[in-house]
């Protein structure tokens, strides 16, 4: 998994589908960076860091595990917290579950207050 977990880090899990969870670990004293992990059927299959300098992570290829596909070019985008607004991470991408049509997602998977 990307990054390390410190005692003051905030961990947020978002159940996107029955097979997919997105885990966000908010890091740093200003809570302006995150470690993102896509977990499919309990197994971490992709991870990356989002920072104010590099706020978007993108899947370079299809991620296929336990019969489910997260299509390439899916993104996780960081909104850095400011005093007036909380921080957030948004997932945008298409998921194909066994026997189903592709479903596009555009959903906020984590929200937190800054320092």
Fold and architecture overview:
The chain has 115 residues and is mostly beta strands. It has one domain (10-112). It has strands at residues 10-15, 20-27, 33-40, 43-50, 56-58, 63-65, 68-70, 75-79, 87-96, 103-112. Strands 5, 6, 7, 8, 9 and 10 form a 6-stranded antiparallel β-sheet that branches. Strands 1-2-3-4 form a 4-stranded antiparallel β-sheet, with no helix packed on it. A hairpin with a 4-residue loop joins strand 1 and strand 2 (20-27).
Quick structural summary:
With 115 residues, this protein is mainly β. The protein has strands at 10-15, 20-27, 33-40, 43-50, 56-58, 63-65, 68-70, 75-79, 87-96, 103-112.
Map the helices and strands.
Elements: E1 10-15, E2 20-27, E3 33-40, E4 43-50, E5 56-58, E6 63-65, E7 68-70, E8 75-79, E9 87-96, E10 103-112
Antiparallel strand pairs: 1-2, 2-3, 3-4, 5-8, 6-7, 7-9, 8-9, 9-10
Average pLDDT score: 93
Largest sheet: 6 strands, antiparallel
**Low-pLDDT sequence parts:** none
List the domain count as a whole number: 1
Through-space gap between termini: 24 Å
Extended strand count: 10
Q: How large, in whole angstroms, is the Cα Rg? A: 14 Å
**Global structural class:** mainly beta
Percent helix: under 10%
| Helical segment count | 0
The 3D shape can be described as: elongated
One letter per element, helices H and strands E, the order comes to EEEEEEEEEE
Strand content: over 45%
């Amino acid at each position: 998994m990307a990054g390390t977990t410190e005692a003051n880090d905030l961990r947020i899990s978002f159940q996107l589908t029955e097979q997919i969870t997105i885990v966000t670990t908010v890091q740093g004293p200003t809570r302006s960076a995150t470690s993102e992990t896509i977990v499919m059927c309990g197994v971490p299959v992709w991870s990356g860091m989002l920072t104010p300098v590099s706020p978007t992570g993108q899947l370079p290829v299809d991620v296929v595990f336990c019969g489910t596909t997260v299509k390439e070019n899916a993104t996780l985008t960081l909104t850095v917290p400011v005093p007036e607004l909380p921080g957030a991470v948004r997932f945008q991408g298409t998921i194909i579950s066994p026997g189903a049509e592709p479903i596009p997602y555009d959903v906020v998977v984590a929200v937190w207050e800054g320092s």
